[in-house]
Amino acid sequence: ADGWGVKRYPVMYNDFILVGGKADAAGTKGNDIAAALKKIAAANAEFISRGDKSGTHAAELRYWKIATEGVKGSGYKECGCGMGPALNIAASSGAYALTDRGTWLNFKNRDNLAVLVEGDKRLFNQYGVMVVNPAKHPHVKQAEAQKFVDWVVSPAGQSAIAGYKINGEQLFFPNANP
Question: What is the DSSP letter of 22?
């Protein structure tokens, strides 16, 4: 919208999920992220946030705003770290965390964590691709970037995305519309 990219193309999607200790002390299990976060806040249950201004962090903050007008409870902690370290902290303490499914499928140190909330349409996570606008950044290698965009939205690129699996589970679902 601000002209930093030339054109945005949808590429693929996955979803966000809420994970937490298998005991689920706050009783969040289900398919409603807002209801789950309300319960976490009310219980002052431990929640580990990336706190890093990433796309996942931005989505998490949107969900908190919907659920509790941004009031998170005393158990809310920001690590200022990536998704892997945030999940490690959650695993070591039985805390709740929001993650994308792809990272979760690739995460090996699950310890006592389980998927507790999934399936809410608000948890949809769209990925896109765009070439940086060369009018604003003349050093951009526009032709090379466009070549990548063209490939990732092509049938071959979409097939590569669909075929990428961990332990037989598909991480991303292609949805380019070139």
Answer: T
Judging by DSSP bridges, how do beta strands 173-174 and 5-21 pair with one another?
antiparallel
The helix/strand/coil state of 166 is: strand
How many residues are there in the chain?
A: 178
pLDDT digits 0-9 by tens, 74-98: 999 999 999 999 999 999 999 999 9
Burial 62-88 (b: 16+ CB within 10 A, else e): ebbeebbeeebbebbbebebebeebbb
Gap between the Cα atoms of 158 and 161, Å rounded: 5
Q: What is residue 30's DSSP assignment?
A: B
pLDDT digit string (tens) for 142-165?
A: 999 999 999 999 999 999 999 999
Residue 110 to residue 107: CA distance in whole angstroms:
7
Q: How far is it, in rounded angstroms, from Cα 125 to Cα 50?
A: 17
Q: How far apart are the first and last CA of the chain?
A: 19
Instruction: Please state the pTM of the whole predicted model.
Output: 0.86
How far is the C-alpha of 32 from the C-alpha of 171, rounded, in Å? Answer: 21
Per DSSP, what are the bridge partners of residue 127?
12
* 19 strand-pairing partners: 97, 115
Structure tokens at 177: 């519309």
